[in-house]
């Protein structure tokens, strides 16, 4: 894939350490798709390229990983994460379902047996939230976030030679995205 400096909006490193990931903002969605499509050619190398996740997606992945870790340590069930679901014995569960099951278990037992933090809500609170009409302010926030999430980001990991991307060293900016 041909990639020139004019195709790249911004490049910067994330976090601290020797093998820190590099975030690349591309101007072309087509180039991003081509790069992601060809990532399979990097198999068995120490380089990986991932699509950048939104904040909500990162939170969901965090919840799924917490439940996966707990299940692997405390049960013999076959479990893994596939996409945005935790697969337990060939049945998929989304993060919201897992949180709901966990909060119900806490309410039944009166305590938690796992280290997962859950904010419990009463059925009356949930019913109130379900029946609530979205406000204009809420819609503006959601649509602005949706537009902002349309930016084209890729995260490159374990790249030793930072200067090899876009012909120069990236700016170092500590972002937790």
Automatic annotation (TrEMBL):
Protein name: Endonuclease-reverse transcriptase
Lineage: Eukaryota, Metazoa, Ecdysozoa, Arthropoda, Hexapoda
């Amino acid at each position: 894939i041909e990639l020139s400096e004019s195709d790249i909006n911004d490049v910067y490193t994330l976090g601290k350490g020797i093998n820190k990931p590099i975030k690349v903002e591309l101007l072309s969605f087509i180039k991003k798709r081509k790069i992601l499509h060809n990532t399979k050619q990097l198999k068995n190398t120490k380089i990986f390229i991932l699509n950048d996740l939104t904040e909500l997606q990162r939170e969901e992945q965090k919840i799924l990983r917490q439940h996966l870790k707990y299940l692997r340590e405390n049960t013999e069930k076959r479990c893994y994460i596939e996409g945005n679901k935790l697969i337990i014995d060939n049945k998929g569960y989304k993060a919201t379902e897992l949180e709901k099951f966990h909060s119900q278990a806490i309410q039944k037992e009166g305590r938690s047996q796992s280290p997962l933090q859950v904010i419990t809500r009463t059925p009356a609170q949930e019913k109130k939230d379900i029946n609530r009409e979205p406000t204009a302010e809420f819609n503006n926030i959601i649509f602005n976030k949706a537009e902002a999430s349309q930016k084209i980001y890729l995260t490159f990991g374990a790249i030793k030679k930072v200067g090899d991307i876009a012909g120069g060293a990236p700016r170092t900016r500590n972002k937790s995205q």
